[in-house]
Amino acid sequence: MRILYFDCFSGISGDMAVASLLDLGVSKEYLLNELKKLNIDEEYKIDIKRVKRAGIDSTYFDVILTEHRHHARNLFDIEGIIDKSDLNKSVKELSKKIFKIVGEAEAKVHGEKLYDVHFHEVGATDSIIDIVAFSICLDYLKIDKVISSYINTGRGFVECEHGILPVPAPATAEILRGIPIYSDEREFELTTPTGAAIIKAVADEFKMDCPLVIKNVGYGAGKRETEKPNVLRVILSDDNQDELFLIQANIDDMTGEMYGYLMDKLFEAGARDVYYTPIYMKKNRPAVTLNVIVSKSMEEKILDIIFTESTTIGVRKIKIDRVELERETKTVETRYGDVKVKIARYKDKIVNIKPEFEDLKRIADENNIPLKSATQVKCEINHNL
Ligand SMILES: O=C([S-])c1cc(C(=O)S)c[n+]([C@@H]2O[C@H](COP(=O)(O)O)[C@@H](O)[C@H]2O)c1
Ligand code: NI
């Protein structure tokens, strides 16, 4: 599984997000060629260079506006530019999802209707390029899961076209509802509305202590130099090449509460799977087999938990092989909103299309409809794919 972890200890902005993915290895030429598909070349130039932030060599990405004409574009105009382009479907969907998050927050903060919000003068082109560039880079990396740290927003005040705003800026605060945030002593805006919308749109989870097998690390520079490194760090974790083991133990002397706790701990520590099977052991004792599937790099951490949190004094370890289908995750628009869908292929043919259960659950809750009805969007998904 390819996991991308966003380490937002100095926050996240649109520029930093794009820069971090370029630093991770996305082809610069590929990104620039894809961006041409937006057909707004005459409005901007792109500056990509290497800079140091508190001694860390990082990639810097900036959009320089070449026109001083004001493009007071609303969400409808921006969706039109994206839809008319030859960008691929996933890039279009993700770009529109991010823009909608920014638009909804601006609408809420300024008390306007979503499609009445005007993305501001300079902001429009800049945000279009940041958001679409990010979507192109993420699509290029073919990531299975995105995890983010808690978000450092910065603190103090920021001056922008509105005048002076508190940090996090009102739109940023609105976007980050429900997401864990914090700030340190730095009196700057570390997370911008665009950065917040990007992370909200793509992160499947927000957690600080995350087991990762580091394959590659990228650093995207923030605009200003601060004492602490003002960079967004991204970590690519890919344990697909890792050897896999099935660890088993037969246990007849634990309580149900202990089994529940043990399973939570094992998943948190990075087990690929944990399951219990009921068995009868020696002396006719009803008991349980603990089964844990784990990659070699996580094995020690998992054994530490088994031996401290269960009563077993030994385990069996079996090396296992897997046959995995090629898979990709797409976001599909439905009448109830966006749903993530996992598509699996066998010999180049689609053999399975599965909407994320969590998204169906959200649809059922938000629309106050039975889960059974939410699962009926499957037909719509097949049609819109
Ligand atoms: O232009 C507008 S409406 C605007 C609104 C807000 C609100 O919080 S409301 C904040 N800002 C500030 O503009 C810059 C640019 O942000 P990007 O996300 O476009 O990079 C940033 O300082 C925002 O806080 C602008
Ligand atoms: Ni605003």
TrEMBL record:
Transmembrane segments: none annotated. It comes from the Bacteria. Pfam families: Ni_insertion. GO terms for biological process: protein maturation. The keyword Lyase applies. It catalyses: Ni(II)-pyridinium-3,5-bisthiocarboxylate mononucleotide = pyridinium-3,5-bisthiocarboxylate mononucleotide + Ni(2+). Keywords: Lyase, Nickel. InterPro entries: Ni_insertion (IPR002822). GO terms for molecular function: lyase activity; nickel cation binding. Belongs to the LarC family. This is Pyridinium-3,5-bisthiocarboxylic acid mononucleotide nickel insertion protein. The gene is larC.
